[in-house]
Specification:
The chain is an alpha+beta fold. It has a single domain, classed as Endonuclease, Chain A, CATH 3.40.960. Helices cover 44% and strands 21% of the residues. The protein has six helices and four strands; from the N terminus they run αααβββαβαα. A four-stranded mixed β-sheet has the order 1-2-3-4, with helices on both faces. The radius of gyration is 14 Å and the shape is globular. It starts with a helix and ends in a 5-residue tail after the last helix.
């Protein structure tokens, strides 16, 4: 089980701070909609961060309570298979669980996405 201490022990690249802030401000619609359901401990009382820097990567959502990363895969992930593979391997190497949801599912099937997240073993 992860905790706040684990949050501060994650590798962190301070050079990505401005980019993460930019991403939080600009937020695409699917990320904003999902954030509205995860923010302020609304999901099972878990504390999520948005656009969290982990190593040399910025993940969409990170939950330090259970060591889960949620990635909303949309157009920005097209043609980036190698990058996504590297990031996935790095995050899993930190013993984090990475859950992928599509931007389309968040936009058009948000309730089903939330049901899947509630049922996911890493988020219990």
């Amino acid at each position: 089980m992860h905790n706040r201490q684990a949050f501060f022990e994650l590798p962190y690249n301070p050079l990505l701070r401005d980019r993460a802030r930019e991403l939080r401000k600009s937020g695409n619609l699917s990320e904003v909609l999902l954030w509205q359901r995860l923010n302020k401990k609304q999901f099972r009382g878990y504390d999520f961060d948005r656009q969290k820097i982990i190593g040399n990567f910025i993940v969409d959502f990170y939950c330090c309570d259970c060591g889960v990363v949620i990635e909303v895969d949309g157009s920005s992930h097209r043609d980036k298979a190698e990058y996504d593979f590297e990031r996935q391997a790095f995050l899993e190497g930190l013993h984090l669980t990475v859950i992928h949801v599509t931007a389309d599912d968040v936009l058009h099937r948000l309730e089903q996405v939330m049901e899947m997240l509630y049922a996911h073993p890493a988020l219990r």
